[in-house]
């Protein structure tokens, strides 16, 4: 009785995540908006520009900048510290405002390193 959002909107949000249209981080933001204002998730994602970025060329440019700006993390990763990769992924996600595909970022980082 206290929930005032449409189950249809929740189902649409799940479909957006399953299709890779948005990542889980963005999904949390969209869910909060659905919960608070019962918005149409697909329309909200479009209006707010929240689609997942899967453009490899763009990601490679951003990742190249992250690699250049964080030489210590790069050195640590190349020295066998796997956790350093997480720091690089995190910096890339921050640079992409959370809209990048984390799995693709991880893959490209490993290739570039």
Measured as a percent range, the helix fraction is over 70%
| Residue fraction in strands | under 5%
Low-confidence spans = none
Report the C-alpha radius of gyration, rounded: 17 Å
Give the termini distance in whole angstroms: 53 Å
The profile of the biggest β sheet is: none
Mean pLDDT: 92
Q: Based on CA inertia axes, which overall geometry fits?
A: elongated
Number of strands: 0
Q: Could you give the order of the helices and strands? A: HHHHHHH
Q: Quickly give the structural class.
A: mainly alpha
Q: What would you say this structure looks like, in words?
A:
- This protein is mostly helical and 113 residues long.
- 24% of the residues are buried.
- It has seven helices and no strands.
- The protein has helices at 7-18, 24-37, 41-48, 56-69, 71-78, 83-95, 102-112.
Give a quick summary of the entry.
The chain is built from 7 helices and no strands.
Strand and helix layout:
Elements: H1 7-18, H2 24-37, H3 41-48, H4 56-69, H5 71-78, H6 83-95, H7 102-112
Task: List its traits.
single chain; mainly alpha; 7 helices; about 110 residues
């Amino acid at each position: 009785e206290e929930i005032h959002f449409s189950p249809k909107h929740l189902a649409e949000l799940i479909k957006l995540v399953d299709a890779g249209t948005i990542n889980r981080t963005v999904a949390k933001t969209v869910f909060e908006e659905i919960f608070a204002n019962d918005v149409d998730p697909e329309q909200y994602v479009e209006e707010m520009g929240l689609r997942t970025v899967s453009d490899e060329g763009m990601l490679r440019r951003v990742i190249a900048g992250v690699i250049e700006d964080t030489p210590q993390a790069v050195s640590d990763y190349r020295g066998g510290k796997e956790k350093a990769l997480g720091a690089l992924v995190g910096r890339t996600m921050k640079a992409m405002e959370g809209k990048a595909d984390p799995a693709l970022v991880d893959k490209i980082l490993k290739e570039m390193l």
